[in-house]
Design goal:
The protein has a 4-stranded mixed β-sheet, covered by helices on one side. The protein is built from 8 helices and 4 strands. It is an alpha+beta fold. The chain is globular, with a radius of gyration of 17 Å. The structure holds glutathione. The site of glutathione has 13 residues, from α1 and α4.
Length: about 210
């Protein structure tokens, strides 16, 4: 059995964050696939057995079961001694911003576009505007910085990259509007161990409509 076991499915950028961190750190991990699109993570049985929150990623390591990607990234950062910012509070600040504004709006907008049944165009437009506002914040933060907090990547970068390595057709923005984000994504993709999401996450895919 591998040292790390990740409950995941391929379309989940949250799961990709954990898998990406493991890949960048050279961790020995295996996937425990979940059937998200058939509602497995929302069943009382799964919630009782795996996580009351009904969400993946869930990482099993050393007899513990960790949930919430920010917790998982922090745990892996401590375990491997990698991707820790010098300023832990600043790192936490950007992790929280990512979970609330950047990842959550981008993930929801992408889900509505690709997988939701009859999404309301007004709701799609609302989430797109929220995504664009979050991108503007990150674009400003990257002014004069190669990574979020400076010259070196930290787990807030790993977290925020979670949905940026899926095919652009799944999150069709005018990428030229955010050139620093585009350069940051390219810089990140050049790091040793990096693989795009669908290369890294195993399991049966549910392609977008
Ligand atoms: N804040 C959580 C978000 C996790 C999350 O939303 N995961 C999605 C898949 S990407 C999920 O399992 N959602 C279950 C649901 O909404 O029912 C984290 O970063 O781990």
């Amino acid at each position: 059995m591998a040292e790390f076991r990740l409950h995941c499915f391929p379309e989940s950028g949250g799961c990709y964050k954990a898998a990406l961190m493991l890949a960048l750190c050279g961790g020995d991990w295996e996937a425990i696939p979940v059937d998200y699109f058939r509602g497995e993570t929302r069943t009382p049985e799964w919630k009782a057995r795996v996580s009351v929150m009904g969400e993946v990623p869930v990482l099993e390591h050393g007899g513990r079961r960790l949930t919430q990607s920010g917790v998982i990234l922090s745990h892996l950062s401590r375990h491997f001694g990698r991707f820790a910012a010098e300023d832990g509070e600043e790192q936490l600040r950007w992790l929280l911003f990512d979970n609330h504004k950047f990842t959550s709006y981008l993930a929801t907008w992408r889900f509505l576009l690709g997988w939701a049944e009859n999404p309301d165009p007004a709701v799609i437009a609302f989430f797109r505007a929220r995504v664009e506002a979050a991108f503007n914040v990150v674009e400003a933060q990257l002014d004069g910085r190669d990574f979020l907090l400076g010259a070196a990547p930290c787990i807030a970068d790993v977290s925020m990259q979670g949905y940026l390595h899926y095919p652009e057709a799944e999150w069709p923005l005018d990428h030229a509007r955010w050139p620093r984000i585009a350069a940051w994504r390219t810089r990140f993709a050049a790091m040793p161990g990096h693989r795009p999401a669908y290369d890294l996450l195993p399991g049966t895919r549910t392609p977008p409509r």
